[in-house]
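pinned: reference chain
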Amino acid sequence: MQNILVTGSHRSGSTWTGRVLSAGGDTQYIYEPFNLNHKPRIKFPLKFWFEKTEDNNKATYKYFQAQLNFSMSNLINKVYYKPGLKSLANSTLHELKKLYYKRKLVKDPIALFSADWIYRNFDFQVVVLIRHPAAFAESLKNKNWLHNFNHFSNQEELMKELPDKLQKEILDICKENRNDIIEHAILLWNIIHYKIIKYKENYNNWIFVRHEDLSTNPVGEFAKLYKKLNLDFNEKARRYIDETSRAKINDNLHRDSKQNISKWKNNLSSLEISRIKESTNIYSREFYSSDDW
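pinned: its C-alpha cells
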C-alpha cells in the first residue's frame, strides 16, 4: 500500500486534513519532516524553508526514509533535541508505531517544492491543498508571519523554475527588505500556487482539493478523499470530523469550519481585499471564480 503525502499551501488546513485522514486508523501520522523548526540537532540535511530537493541528494533521501521506517538514529536525534523521560517515551512509541503501521501519512506543506521528489523516490499518493488567497493573507496577517524570501532566492534550481516576474519580485523584496505583511502574503501565495498549477499539469493522478470545499462539506468531501486513498471511512473518522468541524471553540484543530471560510471578509479591509484579488488573479483564477470574492 502506498504512503500518503498531504501538502500544498500552508495555512490551508493541512494539519486538520492529515489528522482526519489518519483518524480512521489506517495510517500513522507523521508531522512535517521538512519543517526547520522541528529539526533534530544532528544529521538534518535541509537548509531552506520550502526546499526543493534534487534527485541526487543522498542525505535528504536517507533522512526522509528514516521518517518512514523504524530508526534508532532517528530516535536518538529526537531525544537529543528534546531530552527527558516524557520525550523518550513519546519518541519511542512513535518509532515503534512505524513497525505496526504499513501506511504512513506525512503531513507537510513545507515539503511542497519537493513533493514530486517524494512521489518519484518513495511512491506516495499525493494530496495537495489549496486555499483562497484572501483567506491565506488574513491568516498570515493574524499570525504576523512575515517570510524570509532569501529561502527562495538562495535556491538556484528552484528559482529557475519560476517565471521571470516572480523571480524579480523575490529578488526585489529581499534587496529592499520590505515588511508589508500583505505583500509578503501575495507573493508567497503566488509562488506556492504557481507550483501547484504546474503539478496539476504534470500529475493527473494527484489529488487537488480546496480548503473551502472540505470546510463547507466535511463529511462528504472527506468521504471522497478516503475512497480515493483506499482508506476505511469508518465511524471513528466520522466522529473526528464532527468534533473538529462543528466546534464552538476555535483552536488549531477545533472550529466551525463553515464560518471559518469567510472570516477574511471581516478581518481584511476592502482595500486589502482588492489588492490581493488584483495581485493574485493570474493564478487564483485557476481555482476561484469572481463569485468566490
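why pinned: Strands lie at 3-8, 27-31, 103-107, 124-130, 207-210. The two ends are 40 Å apart (CA to CA).
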